[in-house]
Amino acid sequence: MSTLLFERSLPRFAAARIASSLGSGRGAGVGPLRLVEHDPPSLPGAGWVHVDPLLAGICGSDLSTLDGRSSRYFEDIVSFPFVPGHEVVGLLSADAVGADGSVLAAGTRVVLQPVLGCAARGIDPPCAACQSGHVGNCGFLAFGHIRPGLQTGFCADTGGGWSTTGLVAHSSQLFAVPEGFSDADAVTTEPVACAVHAVLGAGIRDGDVVAVLGAGTLGLTVTAALAHLAASGRCPPPRALLVGAKYTHQQRLAREFGATEALPADQLARAVRRHTHSLSFGGTTGETATLSGGADVVIDCVGSAASIGQSLSMVRPRGTVALVGMPGKVTIDLAPLWHREVRLCGAYAYGTEAVPGGAASPAPGARKKTVTKPAAKPLAKAAKVPTFTLAFEVVAAASTGRLVSATYPLERFEEAVAHAGAAGRRGAVKIAFDIRKGHTR
Amino acid sequence: MSRRPGFVLEVDSSTPPTLFWNGEGFTRETLPEGSRVIYAPEPMKALDDPYGAIRHALLNPVGDRDPLPALLVAGMKLTICFDDISLPLPPMEAPDIRQMVIETVLDMAADAGVDDVMLIAALALHRRMTEAELRHALGDRVYDAFAPHGLLTQHDAEDPDNLIHLGQTESGEDIEINKRAATSDLLVYVNINLVAMDGGHKSVATGLASYKSLRHHHNPQTMRHSRSFMDAPASELHSSNWRMGRFIAEAGVKIFQIETTLNTDTFPSSFSFLQKREWEWNLRDRATYAATSRSLKGVPPRLARQIFHSIESPHAMTSVQAGEVEAVHAITTENVWKQQGVDVQGQSDILTMGLPYICPYNVNSIMNPILVACLGLGYFFNLYRGKPLVREGGVLILRHPTRPEFHPGHHPSYIDFYEQVLTQTVDPIAIHKQFEESFATDPWYIHLYRTGHAYHGVHPFYMWYWCAHALEHLGRVIIIGGDAKAVRRLGFSPASSLNDALEMASDVVGPSPTLTHLHAPPLMMADVH
Q1: How does pLDDT run across B55-99, given as a tens digit for each residue?
Q2: Residue span of the structural domain in which B504 resides
Q3: Considering only Cβ atoms within 10 Å of each terminal Cβ, which end of chain B, N or C, has fewer?
Q4: How many domains does chain B have?
Q5: Across the interface, do B423 and A273 touch by the CB < 8 Å criterion?
Q6: Residues B17 and B81 reside in one and the same domain
Q7: Residue B331 lies in a domain
Q8: What is Dmax (Cα atoms) for chain B?
Q9: Closest CA to B397 of B361, B349, B356
Q10: B511 shares a domain with B400
Q11: pTM, full prediction
C-alpha cells in the first residue's frame, strides 16, 4: 500500500527550495516527499471513518509546501509526517453520518471538506468561529484529540488523499457526491468551494466591475462561481467580470465560465480602466499605472507580491482586494492601500454561507448550462448554506470536472508534481492523482 | 523622353523575381507564370515654378470664387486649415507643399492688412502633430510667426468650446465642426491630394469635424457601400461628405479651397530601385537592393523603423488649383487619375501585395497589426475604379511582418482594441454595435488625444471599418511572414512563404487561379474593366 509521505527534513526542504527555483514543482524528487509503504491511519475516535481516495488533486498550496516556499506561519498548525492531499473524492469504507446529518452507507462516494475544526478535534464547546459555521476560521487547529493540522493533508493523524491506504475523516467533513457527477467533477468541489466562499465574502454589489487576477484553478473557479451565484440570485450581479489569464486556454475557459472579458494578465489593468472609464496616472504615455477609479472588487488568485501590487493599482478608492491565492511573505508598497482606503481581505476555505434563498432546490446532480451572462435576479431572504452545497451547484452548472487535465498514479509523483507546477505553460489546469483500483491511465 | 504610363506585365519564364514590400524591408518573389503585375505610371513632370503656380491658382480661382486677394480685407477673421501628418506618404522633402501654399496665402493676407489669422491643423481624430512635424510641414518662418502667439493650433474634436453644431443634412447627419474655422469670414483650406478620395468636401467635413459628425460616415455600413473610396460616384463615404460639405456651404461658411497633386516620385535616389520595373534594374539598382536587403536582415526592427521613417520623399507638385470646393476637386481628381491610373482588364482569383512600413496613421510611429489590416484591406484593396482587382470570394495575399507591436503614446486605444475587442469578434458590424461608443467616449483616450499625441479612442474602429468592404468581398486573407498569432487575431491566415500561401489559397479558388500583383508603392489606381 503506497503513500506519499511528507517528512520534516531540513536538508530536503533546502534541496526542494533550490530545485524549485528552476520552476515550481521541480523539487518533488529531492524534497521531503517520498513514496513509502505505510499503514492506514487509525480512527481517532467516534464519528471518524476510513475513506478510500479515488482522485486527489494537487493544489497551489501543496506546490508551495513541496517547493519549500510556504509561509512559516503554518508551522504550528501542521504536524509531521503528513500525507498531502486535501482535494479528495473517495469511497466510505463503512457507514457514516454526513456533515448534514444524513446517513451515508459504506461505499458512498464522498468529497472531503478538509478543514479540521473543533468538531473533528472533539473540542466542546467549539470556538466562536466554528459555532457560527465559519469552520475555516477555527481557532483551535493545534488542539484537541488529533495533532495540529489546518486541514486533512497537513495533519499527521488523518492521512491524506495522496495514498492508496486511505485516510480518516470526521463526519463533519463528509459530503455525499451528487448523482451524475464524475470523479473529476467531484474532485474539483473543494477548490470550487474556496471560490464560492471568496466570491460571497468579497462584498460584491449590483453593477460592480470585478477583476479576477490569475486563471489557474482558483481564478477559473472563482469566475464560474461568480457567474453562477449571480445568475441564480445568490450574489449581486456584476456589471463586468474581467479575468486576467496568462495562457490562451485559460482565457478560453474563463470566457466559457462567464467572464465578460478574459485577456492576458498584463492587459487586465487596461481592461479595468476601460470598463470603469478611469484615467491613468503615474505612468508614461498610454500605459496604465494607477487608475483614477478602478474595479470595485479585485480578486487576486495568484497571491504574489506582483499580483497584490497589481491588484492595488487597479482597485478603486474604497474598493476591495480579496486574496484568494495563498500569499507567503511578500514585500509590497501599501501606500496606495492607505491613501485610497482600500479594503484588503483574505479568503480562505469554506464553512457556511448566508445567501439569499439558500441552496437551489433542484438536485445538484442535474446539469445546467454554463451561465455566460449573469442575470439580475432579485435577491431573496438570506439563509445559511454549507459552502460545499453551493459548490456542488457550481460544479454542475459549469462542469468544472473539465479542469482536470491529467491524472497520474502515485508512483509517478515527480512527473505529476512537475506537471502541476507547469500546468499553465503546458496547457493544463488541474493535475490529480488517480488512486482508483484497477484504473488504467 | 515622355513618361511611360502604368503597365500590366504578364509574368513569363524570363520575368525576374518581383519586388514585394515587407514592412521595414522588401523581398523578391517568383510569381507563377501567367500572373499579372501592375506597375504605377512613371512620375509626371513637376511644376517648374511651384510658387508661381500657387500664386497663379490663387489669382485665378475656379468655380464661383473671386481671386483670393479680393476676398482678403483688413479687419476680417481669416483661418487657414491644412492637412495633417497623414499626408503625404512618405513625408516630403522640404519645402513641404503646405509651407509653399501657406506662405503665399499669408503674403496676400499681409498685403491686404489682415491681422486676425489663425492656422489650424485639420486633425479630425488623428494624433496631434509634434513641433518638429509642424515645423516640417509649415516651415520655421510660419511656425515661429504663429505658434508662440497661440495662433497655430490643432483641431480638437473634443473641445466643446471650439465646436459648433451647424445642423443636420437631409439624411440626418450632424454637422459639428471647428468653431473658429466655421465662424471665420474666410476659411482657406490647404490640401495635399495623395489619392483620389482626399480633398474636396472631405477636407472640412471630415478634417475639422467631431466624433458626432464623423460617426455618420465612418461606420461599417458606409464603408461597405463605398466601392471604392477612390471612385467618387460609387462611394457612400464621398456622398456623405458631399452632403455635409454642401450643408456647410449653405450654412454660410465661406471656403477657399486650395488643392495640390503630387507625382509618383516616391523614394529618394538611394532607393530608386523601388520604383523601377525589375527587368530594368541596372547594376547599381541590383547592388543597392542586395546590400540593403542584406543589411536590413541583421537590423533590429526598431532600428529598421528609424531608418525607413527618416526617408523623405522627393515627390513634387504636379498641379495646384484653388477656388470653390467642388470645382477645384474635379480638376484635382482628374489630375490624380492622370498620374496614377492604370487600365486593367478583368479581375483575378488572387491579389497579392507587399505592404510597406508606412500608412497614413503611423508616420514616425509603429505599423501595428490593425494598421497592417487597414493598409492592405482598406487602402490598397480599394485602389480601384469599376470593380476590385480580385473577384468576389477571391483571396488577398499580403506580405508584412505584422508584429504585435504598438506605439503606446500614439495608439493607446489600438492596444485595447487588439486585446479586448479583436479577441471577441472581428466582425465590423458587431464591433461597431458592441464596443464603439464605449471607446469613443472613454475619458482617458480623450485626455490622451487632447493633451498628448494619441489617436482618438475610436480611431482603431475606423481602421477596422476601412476593411469592411474587403472583408465582405474576399474569401480569405493570407499574410506571408506575419507573426502567426497576430495574423490569426486579425482573423486572417498566416503563411511562411508565397508557395504556402498559394497552396492555402487553392482551397478557396481552386488549383489554377489567376493572380494579380499590385506593385505598390509608388501608388497607382486600377481602372478595372
Answers
A1: 999 999 999 999 999 999 999 999 999 999 999 999 999 999 999
A2: 7-43+340-528
A3: N
A4: 2
A5: no
A6: no
A7: no
A8: 71
A9: B349
A10: yes
A11: 0.87
